[in-house]
Amino acid sequence: MQIIDTPQDDATIIVIATMLMDGFREHWPEAWETLEEAIQEVKESFEEGRISRLALDGDGMILGWIGGQHFYAEVWELHPLVVRREQRHKGIGRALVTDLEAQVRQRGGITLMLGTDDEDNMTSLSGVDLYNDLWQHVANIKNLRGHPYEFYQRLGYSIVGVVPDANGVGKPDILMAKRVG
User: Fold this and answer.
1) Would you say residue 46 has pLDDT above 90?
2) What is the distance between the alpha carbons of residues 5 and 65, in angstroms, rounded to a whole number?
3) Cα angle 86, 113, 105; round to 5
4) 58 near 45, Cβ under 8 Å?
5) Which residues does 55 contact at the CB level (< 8 Å), separation at least 6?
6) Contact (CB, 8 A) for 65 and 6
7) Which residue among 21, 84, 95, 130 has its CA within the 20 to 30 Å range from the CA of 3?
8) Is the pTM value of this prediction over 0.90?
9) Which tens digit of pLDDT belongs to each residue from 99-158?
10) pLDDT at 30 over 80
């Protein structure tokens, strides 16, 4: 596997956009509902203050894509990360995140953060009033149905906050961060 800067040609952009739509459709169907929206997301990853990286196999097939953007001060945001459905659980996501951390470090970043929504009751934080005893809920979080927060925890990320009702009542955004610099 090789990780490279994302080429800005139309064919690559369309492959990534299609993969993005497919990768998020199961748990976040409102994300990138059209190919045009997904293409715009990919094109925005080429803007100033952004990072756009691809994982390729030995034949040049795109296995996964990750984006990052300068957020503020010494903080960068991981957004988004997608791995081809049939290529998951093979270390591609881990490799992309590790590469993004190195890219952020090279740019002087100290912290890499991300938000990972829970819109469909995948954790114990979903469907409850988090305004009552927020940190007790966070301390006792349970992964009910394969939510990706545990993937990021295995990579050294910590839950640093939660935005209750970010996506509707009882649908929080789980904020995670890691010191990379």
Assistant:
1) yes
2) 10
3) 95
4) no
5) 1, 2, 3, 62, 63, 64, 65, 83, 92, 95, 96
6) yes
7) 21
8) yes
9) 999 999 999 999 999 999 998 899 999 999 999 999 999 999 999 999 999 999 999 999
10) no
> How far apart (Å, rounded) are the C-alpha atoms in residues 23 and 127?
24
Q: Which residue has the tokens 């952009």?
A: 13
Question: What is the per-residue pLDDT for 113?
Answer: 98
pLDDT in tens, 64-115: 999 999 999 999 999 999 999 999 999 999 999 999 999 999 999 999 999 9
CA separation for the pair 78, 180 (Å, rounded):
12
Of the CA atoms within 13 Å of residue 141, those in its CB half-sphere come to: 26
Higher-scoring residue by pLDDT: 56, 30: 56
- List of residues 6+ apart from 143 with CB closer than 8 A: 122, 123, 149, 150
Phi, psi of 100 (to 5 degrees): -60, -40
Instruction: Write out the two tokens for 164.
Output: 């209750």
Tell me whether strands 50-56 and 62-72 are parallel, antiparallel or unpaired. Answer: antiparallel
Question: Would you say the C-alpha torsion 66, 177, 114, 128 has a positive or negative sign?
Answer: positive
Q: Structure tokens of 38?
A: 């997904």
